[in-house]
């Protein structure tokens, strides 16, 4: 039997379609694709504010709090540090974060975040890019 993982965010009701995913079965909030699970968990860490989760007050990088802040080299390095520390705390045993790069995106006022990581099970490098 294949391992099952929680799908982030939960998908209740009719099948949900998101870009790059397959339809989910009605009423189920699970997936058997480990790549989708890890990507969704990384996004959850990035966009969850610290102290937002009651039982895990140090969980999350809180990128949404950076939304209206000025983009400067100091702010970019602070965001990079926050992401690196949050991912290391959340995925210490399952995922190895190899590199986190935060730079100003070509669009005015946006940040490009590149996260290079590898699952500890197979050591294959993967990259997730997010523009905020």
UniProtKB/TrEMBL annotation:
Q: Which InterPro entries match?
A: IraD/Gp25-like
Ranges for domain IraD/Gp25-like: 34-122
Judging by the UniProt lineage, the source's domain of life is: Bacteria
Please report the organism this UniProt entry assigns to the protein: Cereibacter ovatus
This chain's protein is named IraD/Gp25-like domain-containing protein
